[in-house]
Design brief:
Number of strands: 10
Helix content: 25-40%
CATH architecture of one domain: 2-Layer Sandwich
Shape: globular
CATH class of one domain: Alpha Beta
Structural class: alpha+beta
Number of helices: 6
Bound molecules: zinc ion
Largest sheet: 5 strands, antiparallel
Strand order of the largest sheet: 4-8-1-10-9
Low-confidence stretches: none
Oligomer: single chain
CATH topology of one domain: Alpha-Beta Plaits
Order of helices and strands: EEEHHHHEEEEEHEEH
């Protein structure tokens, strides 16, 4: 079936460097403004880690924002963009509708699920076809990025406490948050499966954004934290012609 078969795999390896200090909070949603001290996310060694899913989310938003430029209208499709009235659009995949439409094709279960998968794919925008949506698996996986150094010296910054009820700055309230210092290095490993031409172009855009240090991760981005850069990148293409060689199974 079209959507399961191995056609090709693109692997991009490299190094992520923190150009600015990072604060990727250990608690979901970043910094809790009321919490006294906000630690960064760490792996089992106590070293900092950048979750692949966080970076993927940032990259997706960035690609969507770029494609929202009218220059791309009619050539590229993208959902989840807020319009000038602040309303969000989405691919709105309604599995119930699609399943009903396909209920007539009762030939075989396999045929029906194939037809459903095809319709979801057809109804999805260019961004969803790469990053996935409620009905469509992502073609892109980014592994959690582990710190490659031997030792780390976390730093601490002070922030102003926010009153949870009023949203105003608490009088004199201070909380600390931990940061990973600038210069920290992480390994980077991205796998993309069965990319079509347009998706390969979006992947190139993703790599360009990372290389040009246009991406920031974690919290306190508005205060200048979180900027990262991809360096030493290497792209590996695996397809039917070289897969045996790649795995040493010639
Ligand atoms: Zn979409």
């Amino acid at each position: 079936m079209l959507f399961d078969r191995f056609e090709s795999r693109t692997i991009i390896k490299g190094k992520i460097i923190a150009l600015k200090p990072l604060h990727i909070g250990a608690s979901e949603g970043g910094i809790d403004p009321v919490q006294v001290d906000s630690p960064v996310l760490k792996d089992w060694r106590g070293m900092p880690v950048i979750p692949g899913s966080s970076l993927k989310g940032v990259l997706r938003s960035r690609v969507e924002a770029i494609l929202s430029n009218p220059a791309f209208a009619g050539k590229w499709t993208s959902c989840n963009i807020l319009d000038d009235k602040g309303r969000g659009t989405s691919c709105n995949i309604d599995l119930k509708d699609i399943k009903n439409e396909n209920a007539k094709a009762r030939d075989s279960l396999e045929k029906i699920s194939e037809a459903i998968a095809k319709q979801i794919y057809d109804k999805s925008c260019d961004v969803c076809r790469l990053f996935g949506n409620g009905g469509l698996a992502s073609k892109l996986q980014i592994k959690d990025m582990n710190y490659t150094g031997e030792k780390i010296k976390y730093e601490r910054r002070d922030g102003v406490g926010i009153d949870r009820d009023t949203g105003a700055a608490k009088n004199g309230a201070k909380y600390g948050f931990q940061i990973v210092p600038a210069g920290a290095e992480f390994d980077f490993y991205l796998v993309a499966e069965n990319l079509e031409e347009k998706q390969a172009k979006l992947l190139n855009l993703v790599v360009k954004l990372l290389k040009d240090s246009e991406i920031s991760v974690g919290g306190k981005v508005s205060r200048g934290l979180g900027q990262i850069q991809l360096t030493n990148e290497e792209a590996i293409e695996i397809n039917r012609h070289n897969i045996a060689k790649y795995y040493g199974l010639e």
